[in-house]
Write a structure and sequence with these properties.
This protein is of the alpha+beta class and 434 residues long. Helix 12 packs antiparallel against helix 13. The protein has a four-stranded antiparallel sheet with strand order 1-2-4-3, sandwiched between helices. It has a two-stranded antiparallel ribbon with strand order 5-6. A two-stranded antiparallel ribbon has the order 7-8. It has 14 helices and eight strands. It folds into two domains: 117 residues, no CATH class; 270 residues, no CATH class.
Length: 434
Amino acid sequence: MRKDEKKNCHLKLGTLYDSFLISHSLGLWLKQNVDSDEVASGSPLPGVKPQKLDEAIQIPKEAIEILRNQVFGFDTFFVTSQDPYEGGVLFKGNLRGQAAKSYDKISKRLKDKFGDEYKLFLLVNPEDDKPVAVVVPRTTLQPETTAVPEWFAAGAFGLVTVFTLLIRNVPALQSDLLSAFDNLNLLKDGLSGALVTALILGVHELGHFLAAKDCGVKLGVPYFVPSWQIGSFGAITRIRNIVPNREDLLKVAAAGPIAGYCLGLLLLLLGFVLPPSDGIGVVVDASVFHESFLAGGIAKLLLGNVLKEGTAISINPLVIWAWAGLLINAINSIPAGELDGGRISFALWGRKASLRITGVSIALLGLSSLLNDVAFYWVVLIFFLQRGPIAPLSEEITDPGEKYVAIGIIVLLLGLLVCLPYPFPFTDETLTSF
């Protein structure tokens, strides 16, 4: 592939971008500690140090012959050809049997012959959708460096997010954000709402970390992203090591939204059922529930004929706070880039499909941004910080189990239900009061 094509690969979609993936992106991503196989996730937060694309093969010819004849074989992966690959070798051939079992056999033979000198990847060639094996010397893996300590940067983002969560729940300050610095005492009025939304965000991140620990995946410090519109856009959490397979990626990616949705839905239902503590609560127009299919459907089910077009109703503020948490979960479930939804779509349908889904999602968000400023800022954030591509997995061929596929699809569907508008009118005929 020509150098000018490589320079422009991130600006192109479809086949050109897919074809470039194996020959260039893997080398760009494998940048972390050699002993733990840590990698950068492709996100510029923090930055990635790319390797030179014209490096000579560092694996000796004798070692390549051993790889071809003794590590690979008829029972695992029969090699038919090989190509130079940034410090390593890309083998093409025929995969024998199940990919996961073949990967384990090849990895064991590789370790028996060379110890921890080389790292194996079993991937799908986007040019012909056939399996390929990539062997890279661990000495070519570069540790990642950051301008400032990760915890310091994450802490700074977190403090700003706390401020925006408070602002989001103080209507008197939303029209003039700068006045908040002159009226800091008003911020305490937003404490309850900020705590509820922060709790949902915290449970979301806890879900990620518990699933990651169970799968042996290392996660970086979460960077909470502030938002003037909804308080926060959630968190950017890097995957610091090489994920073994798509099922493990799916477990980690889906665990956060599932935890966040469960708590958010519980609090939303409580908000509809419990009367406001002050007897007044928050007065909103019924039309606000048209903004979300999920919130509108639940509101219609529980409030019945109380919910009428053009009628103001009093609700517990817990409804608004929980709704904000659900929305943050939903926008992180959009199947784009390195968002939770992007990782889920990759785990469900593979790299090529997920790249195209990312393109469609960003395009739709771009159209939505013409009418919604939240969509505008979110698509900018995705494009510059979270568009991926996702770092390579050790073995990307094996599909996840059916149980986890169902969980992943549920997460994506819930995200749609929260973000899509409720299209039906609130009339007197349909449902009765709860």
